[in-house]
Amino acid sequence: MSQANWTSVTVFFFLGFSHYPKVEVIIFVLCLLMYLITLLGNTILISITILDSHLHTPMYFFLSNLSFLDIWYTSSALTPMLANFVSGKNTISFSGCASQMYFSLAMGSTECVLLSMMAYDRYVAICNPLRYSIIMNRRVCVQIAGSSWLTGCLTALVETGPVLQLSLCGKSIINHFTCEILALLKMACVDTSIVQLIMFVISILLLPLPMLLICVSYAFILSNILRISSVDGRSKAFSTCAAHLTVVVLFYGAALSMYLKPSAVNSQEIDKFMALIYAGLTPMLNPIIYSLRNKEVKMAVKKLLMRNPFSAILTSVPK
């Protein structure tokens, strides 16, 4: 079997969903719809958060960060796949593959941290409302968002660097629709135990621990909700929490099933569909679940539609 270094490989070939020719077109259509809805929903949320001063709060600051993140995350994972399906080439260059692997890991890792910080923000807002503006001041919010981005980018660099040093076996065929790091590790000719150990440690830090923080935060939130005397208020709060937790379970569950499964389990085909969930489905659901169902956001959209769009943009520019 022939060996090659990453630097000697110029083009990679994706297998994608070629094993399922009957449903490949359906998968393409679903991915295209998810991508377009993700772009539209997250762009709307970012726009109204900037233009409406009533939404200049910590919650919407984090949500706009999440929306910006989801646009880049989905674009890095789905756009090349959609373009390859249309062109029929199913190829990617070495530099394109390395970039795609890094940005997908960076955006995914950042989202893991950011979702847990958003849960903490909701915990402070609901369980300690009188001190909320003091605890979650502007400086703290910027530090939390910045540390989330920094953590995601650094951990992705730590994971991507060693993989790019590995020798590859055989043809440059990736059994995936994207340059997924796990699929690339299966192409290595050398021992990958050190790389897998690095990935395991980072996965523990970015998946179970943030998810535990989210569960603890929502446990306190739910205990506070139970004290609400109004039945309608309690049911609305439960509905909101259930929707948030559904998205969290989808995102972390799909990632956990991929990155922390036993090494003996070989489920490459299942991994492709899991990747579609956390790279396509959850970024599409995030703006709908977290924001576009809120009365504040609906009111902001109505106000902006009633105003002259040019004056709305001009009034948002600081003097």
TrEMBL record:
InterPro entries: GPCR_Rhodpsn, GPCR_Rhodpsn_7TM, Olfact_rcpt. Keywords: Cell membrane, G-protein coupled receptor, Membrane, Olfaction, Receptor, Sensory transduction, Transducer, Transmembrane, Transmembrane helix. It is a multi-pass membrane protein. The chain crosses the membrane at residues 25-48, 60-82, 102-120, 140-158, 194-221, 242-261, 273-292. Pfam families: 7tm_4. One of its GO terms (molecular function) is G protein-coupled receptor activity. It is found in: Cell membrane. This is Olfactory receptor.
